[in-house]
Design goal:
mainly alpha; disordered N terminus
Length: 164
């Protein structure tokens, strides 16, 4: 196992036949560190999934309350329900779900950026290989889609129209 790089390998990556620190112990430690960074990234995705589940529940429940009482008020409870009570309560729940989702997304992005910075620093010090970049998070794509749906639900509640 020499210090030579394979043909086609740039300075940004170490060849697989080159040991980190020219020592098997350092190589194993480097692998554990890289796997730890990957596990931390997956943990951040799981945290965002938890936020998505909670936000989805709030958005769905808020819109359901609005729709249910809006229809019920038209048919049966015209005199017993305040004019905007269902819209206010349902809108508050949907708004809470959207705010929670936004905060979760911001937290996720900050965590991933910190991880990237730490990984890049470890690479600069020659402590880990730089072979894998963090992937695009499909969980973040789902969060963006849910955010759009939540915003559409707020518009539908506020103006009592829309695709819902």
């Amino acid at each position: 196992m020499g210090d030579q790089q394979r043909p086609g390998m740039g300075d940004e990556e170490m060849a697989y036949d080159q040991l980190v620190g020219d020592d098997i112990s350092s190589e194993l430690s480097s692998n554990r560190t890289a796997l730890s960074l990957f596990r931390t990234e997956m943990s951040s995705d799981r945290t965002l999934m938890s936020v998505i589940r909670t936000s989805l529940s709030l958005i769905g429940f808020g819109f359901t309350i609005f729709s249910f009482f809006h229809m019920l008020k038209q048919d049966f409870l015209a005199a017993n329900v305040a004019e905007n009570a269902p819209a206010r309560f349902g809108g508050a729940l949907v708004g809470l779900g959207v705010v929670l989702l936004l905060l979760g997304m911001i937290n996720h992005v900050r965590s991933v950026l910190q991880l990237r910075h730490r990984r890049d620093r470890l690479f600069e010090l020659g402590l880990i290989r730089h072979v894998s970049r963090f992937r695009v998070s499909t969980v973040m794509i789902v969060a963006i889609a849910l955010l759009a749906i939540g915003l559409l639900a707020i518009v539908a509640i506020a103006f009592r129209e829309g695709p819902f």
